[in-house]
Amino acid sequence: MCQPIRVSAESTAPPVCVLGLGLIGGSVLRAAVAAGRTAWGWNRSAAAVDGARADGFDAGTDLRAALVRAAEQDAIVVVAVPEPALDAVLTEVAAHAPGCTLTDVVSVKGSVLAAVRRHGLAAHFAGGHPMAGTAESGWSAGDTDLFRGAVWVVAAEDDTDPGAWTGVARLALDCGSVVVPAGAAEHDAAVARISHLPHLLAEALAVTAASGGDLALALAAGSYRDGTRVAGTAPALVRAMCEANAQALAVALDEALALLTDARRALASTGSTEVLVEAGHRARQRHDTLGRWDITDVAVGAPGWAEALRDAGRRGGAVRAL
After folding, report:
1. Domain that holds residue 259
2. Do 72 and 205 share a domain, yes or no?
3. What is the chain's Cα-based Rg?
4. pLDDT of residue 2
5. Which helix or strand (DSSP H or E) is residue 210 part of?
6. Which residues of the chain have pLDDT under 70?
7. What is the pLDDT of residue 137?
8. How many domains, the chain?
9. Do residues 38 and 10 lie in contact, with contact meaning Cβ atoms separated by under 8 Å?
């Protein structure tokens, strides 16, 4: 049976070509179309493409064709494949759409930036990382509103092209996010603590609970559910993000282990968990009361603009409009 191809309302914004139609890439395709952009997607596996087409989206399994179309229409190319597939996809981008604005939604920025530079694509690249997701994966897990209200990091390096940065930031804003600028290295250090470490802690909690037998699992309620939610993520995806950020993650893991070791010693010697519990409560309250202010005084492209944006991002600033 023929399926309709969903097309967006006419828009002056650049089209979007999404490479990889899993949870994040599929959600980018949905959100870009909902924002009025012309958008199409590519995926290696036919199952995701069939699902996208069945839902009325423009998608295919021919990577070269998707990129040639991107080059012809001066589209923004969004790389949304897992880290292990990055080099192969960038090889095709370099061959067929080297002049397109390029971004990604991979959770590690340093290794992606290095790969982009190896392939000679840095001139039009601004890395991205939407801080949103679920434990589910695949096209069917995608959501048009996944990024609404979420932070979307758009990397600003000293050699980032201002036009590329602005184009990627506009796409993030169109998808409903607020944009936080950061450098690749500082981004990776931060997400090691707030994304990758939580995955390992969730896995450890799940294993520890299961080792208590079926009674422990039968008694598990809210704290177990919340603490282990991301342990439901496909193991290959967790490994890809954690292992690509190994150096920064090792630092964060050492700090967490030191805190737990000190708590274990205190529990054995004094019977108290006060130090860790009080410190954790204060840290959580700091997060809950953190204010985010609008960056309005940086002119993208002016001398020193990238460092000015990075500094604003470090201090809690975000871009909500361009």
Report:
1. 189-288
2. no
3. 21
4. 31
5. helix 197-210
6. 1-11, 135
7. 79
8. 2
9. no
